[in-house]
Amino acid sequence: MRKISLWLFILTFTVCMARGQDAATQEQMGKLSGQIQDLLESRDAQAKQISALEKEIGDLRDKLNQPAVANDSASAEDLKKLAAQVQEIDKKRQADNEQILKAIEKLGKAGAGSGGHKSSPSASSATPTDNPTSAAGGTEKGHPYTIAAGDTVAAIAKAYRAQGVKVTTAQILAANPGLNPNSLIVGKKIFIPDPNAK
Fold it and tell me: Which residues contact residue 160 at a Cβ distance below 8 angstroms, ignoring those fewer than 6 apart?
């Protein structure tokens, strides 16, 4: 009977120990389960943060790819319209230039017809005609001349020298007081003195 009680005692003790270990194991498993739950919740929170960051990065990329200010940019159609307007303005400018040149030619012809001499010294080869009085009202002999487009005092003097009239720019300027050599007026009549004329 002693052996049975000893076995019973060992058995009871083992069962108690097993129950005690089960309780400790249960407690540890409960703690581990709680920690696993915390880790899962933490993982879900991090996944949400990562999703939010990815969305923010995507928005920033979209903003970088867009023009700074949509209203300041011109479309291809706007550029075509602008190019057409520039071409139209250029055509009008050319037409205006042609009208101006025609008007200058008419003035040159009108001046040449009334003055009895050519209007362009370089093309002129104007035949010098005697004029007993100068533009200043003196008794100097010379030739009347009507200023044409593109004329300079030097070019006029050179054209007359080519015709045998030995005149200098200084003599032309002296014979025409108030004549501005830097701003000749087309159609204005001037006097070309002829130092060789008697």
Answer: 121, 126, 128, 143, 167, 192
Question: What distance in Å separates the CA atoms of residue 119 and residue 148, rounded to the nearest whole number?
Answer: 5
Closest CA to 121 of 77, 81, 86, 167: 167
Strands (E), 65-161: 142-146
Please state whether 125 falls in left (phi above 0), alpha (psi between -120 and 50) or beta.
Answer: left
Determine the structural domain holding residue 128 and report its residue range.
117-193
With 0-12 / 13-18 / 19 or more C-beta atoms within 10 angstroms meaning exposed / middle / buried, residue 111 is: buried
Residue 159 lies in a domain: yes
pLDDT in tens, 131-154: 434 444 445 788 999 999 989 999
15 found inside a domain:
no
Chain segment 18-69, per-residue pLDDT in tens: 777 777 777 887 888 888 888 888 888 898 999 889 998 888 888 888 765 5
Q: How far apart are CA 175 and CA 96, in angstroms?
A: 36
156 Cβ partners below 8 Å, 6+ apart? Answer: 121, 145, 147, 172, 190, 192
What CATH number does the domain containing 151 carry? Answer: 3.10.350.10
State the total domains in the chain: 1
And the tokens for 112?
A: 């040449």
